[in-house]
Amino acid sequence: MNPVTTPLTVYKASAGSGKTFTLALEYIKLLILEPQNYRYILAVTFTNKATEEMKRRILSKLYDIAHALPGANDYMPALRTTFDRMTDEDIRQRAGESMQLILHNYNYFRVETIDSFFQSILRNLARELGLKANLQVGLNDTEVESEAVDNIIENIQQD
What we know:
The chain is built from six helices and two strands, in the order αβαααβαα. By secondary structure, the chain is mostly helical. A two-stranded parallel ribbon has the order 1-2.
């Protein structure tokens, strides 16, 4: 079994534009392609609330798809189009298998905030460098805020 090899995809859109729907659908597509893919996917969000919503959405939609429930009606047309050589039963079977695998190996279900993702990178880097385990990362809020305001002012259009 080879890990999923898709390019990095970034979705940037305003609130209420369907980001969660799109991200969950793309995640589920990768799982339908290969149920073991959950081990190789990282979905990054900005807030804890968004992280929990993504996890809940993915698992609930997998359940709905696996059991042919009405909650799957918004995802099935896209899945049928993507996997036009699979039957609905094949899609349901893979959704059920994916859901069971995630539930039994939940620590590999990686939907994280950008902060927790970078913290894990820094912890691993510190371990590789032999630094103390109690390494803490600090952020100079005043400097960051000042730089952010400067960037906004620089990018303001005259009109």
